[in-house]
Amino acid sequence: MSIMHTHIVYINDQPLRFVSGSMLSEINAANNVHVVSEASFSINEIVDGFPDYPQGKDIIYLCNDPDVSWKNFISLFTFSVAAGGVVKNNEGKLLAIFRRGKWDLPKGKLDYDETPEHAAVREVMEECGLENVLLGEPLLITYHTYIEKKKNILKKTHWYAMTTTDEHPLIPQLEEDIEKAEWMTPEQISQQVYANTYRSVKTVLETYLRSH
Q: Residue 2: left if φ>0, alpha if ψ -120 to 50, beta else—which one?
């Protein structure tokens, strides 16, 4: 599918893509998508209708100007910024955490006046008890929505590749609902984590594994 370079946000763990109507021929040839159009539905109606959309499919929102539609979408939410990473140790294993019933990656909100790079390293160290984390290249940025204290939140998360030489036992941050933190081989990631994680997190891991 060649329409990846669009604005993408995950709502209820389903990707919503803002796509130009000029790409309709490519979309019609794609599998596993559900197409809606701004000619028929407003941004508000798209968001409100998500519970009724087919599960497991990418929701394509056809619009004249994806950038404008994306800005209109953002205006409906309270904005939050976070950062996290995919960490590799000396054995070539990757760090995964188990939180609230799903496998996840360490990440967290930026403190006041903190850069995403600094926050990503800090959150990894705090959530897993690591002491030596080296920041690598940026991987991608993801967006997902959730409700907190009756507010609609849009979270933007900066993801980075990281490495560590730390050989101390991992210490999951229990106050952040992290039940366990484990080092896993790429094979374990694809077999265990992919089967029970968020689609956005799977995208981050797939992006990392394609380039490392």
A: alpha
Using CA atoms in the order 58, 62, 63, 67, what is the torsion angle rounded to 10 degrees?
30
Judge contact between 69 and 44, C-beta under 8 A.
no
Question: What's the predicted TM-score (pTM) here?
Answer: 0.91
In a 3-state reduction of DSSP, which class is residue 30? coil
46 sits in which H/E element: helix 43-48
- 211 Cβ contact partners less than 8 Å away, ≥ 6 residues apart: none
pLDDT along the chain (212 residues), means of 10: 68 90 65 83 85 82 91 94 97 97 97 96 97 96 92 96 94 95 97 96 96 90
Tell me which residue of 202, 207, 203, 200 sits closest to 9, measured CA to CA: 200
Interatomic CA distance for residues 187 and 201, integer angstroms: 16
Q: Answer whether 92's CB lies under 8 Å from 209's CB.
A: no
- Angle subtended at Cα 178 by Cα 15 and Cα 93, rounded to the nearest 5 degrees: 80
